[in-house]
Amino acid sequence: FVHGMPKRLNEMPYFVHYFAEILNEMACFVNEISRFVDEMIKILNEMRYFVQSFGNFLDEMEQIVNETS
Fold it and tell me: Which candidate, 59, 55, 35, 54, places its Cα nearest to that of 43?
């Protein structure tokens, strides 16, 4: 039992390093996802703005048609 201990303790730094790399990868992944979500929100806001503008345009066209008729 005692002879086996140093071997296990020697393996610990590798395991900790490996675990830290996994955590780092996960953090990068989460970062990428949040960046992607931010981009999606920007695109949705742009689309909403476009739809509002288009709606205003249609309202103006309707007013013009009503005035001419």
Answer: 35
